[in-house]
Amino acid sequence: MTFDVQATRDIIEIITGGWRSQALYTAVKLEIPDHIEAGRATCGELATATGAEEDGIRRLMRLLVAMNVFQGNDKDGYQNTTVSAALLDGSHSLRDMCLLHGEEFYAAWGNAHQAISTVGSGFEAAYGHSFYTHLGQHEDTAKRFQRTMNAGNMFFPQVPEVFDFSGDKMVVDVGGGGGDLLASILKATPDARGTLFDREHMMPAAGKHLADTVGLDRVQLVAGDMFESVPAGGDVYILCRVLAGWDDDAVVEVFENCRHGMVDSSSRLIVFDRVVVDEDSPVLPPLWDLHLLMTTGGRHRSLDTFTELLDRAGLYVERVAELPMDNSAVIAAPRATPQGSPGTER
């Protein structure tokens, strides 16, 4: 057997990925980006500020500089890079994402073999209960998870570029959470109106955010269960990252409820999610698909699967628009008749 140096290097790069993520997690846990930003730039100063041993800090910084997370050295002082700057504490920080992935999600991935073998949640194998049960029992983790979800909203400003929401359209955000996506759409489309639909406990935070960003004169807040019904009279129904944890029959129920609520044949349903493909795939969609299995037992779906489920609900895929970070907008239209959908475009 010929010794392949590049193959060996590639394998080592892959199997040490967990070490790298834990090194980054440790830096965030110790708040090193914030300490450097405050001028504590040497290993001694960082050790004093964090309560860690100086030798441990030196060895950690040696790796993170090699990974381009930080730059500089102990003699002259370390500086933040664009990577570590994204971890500084603040409203758009990736700090909570690193903490969540370095703790709860890292434990879930430790059960990858069992999760993949049984198609069951790695988180449940690690903790003995579901991820959402865990959130209900641990308020700090729940807040961290919500901030992590908010940090993943970076494609929201591009949404009005892939669909025309103008023309006095009523946009119904089903499972709209804190209202970030609806606010982005309404800010970019002055003549659009919106309805945020979600569980009762989401209403206070969503109401405050929408009042601060677009004004409640353009938005109504409706509490309810998307599996029972959704607000009627929408020109556009949107479902953003709310389907991955549910089985196919449940997803069809939501699609049907949106279809029944539509004003007429000009109405549209837009599903924002990652779409998986089996060939020539970028890394992120299948990686996040497996991550869903590890955490909630959920999954991302292929375009063929979305097409099938939409067809069962009386809709067809009109087109698919690509968004940053391998997100997609699957835009569906109601079929005029129960049979003979017009096909799909890509």
In short:
The protein has 346 residues and is α/β, with parallel strands linked by helices.
Structure description:
With 346 residues, this protein is α/β, with parallel strands linked by helices. The protein is 47% helix and 16% strand. The strands form three sheets. It has a seven-stranded mixed beta sheet with strand order 5-4-3-6-7-11-10, with helices on both faces. A two-stranded antiparallel ribbon has the order 1-2. The protein starts with a helix and ends in a 12-residue tail after the last strand.
Which descriptor suits the 3D outline? globular
Beta-strand content bin = 15-25%
User: How are the strands of the biggest sheet laid out side by side?
Assistant: 5-4-3-6-7-11-10
Stated plainly, the CATH topology of the largest domain is called Rossmann fold
Write down the secondary-structure element order: HHHHHEEHHHHHHHHEHEHEEHEEHEHEE
Report the end-to-end length measured between terminal Cα atoms: 45 Å
- Mean pLDDT equals 93
Q: Characteristics of this structure?
A:
18 helices, 11 strands, 3 domains, alpha/beta, Rossmann fold, globular, two-stranded antiparallel ribbon, 346 residues, 7-stranded mixed sheet, Arc Repressor Mutant, subunit A
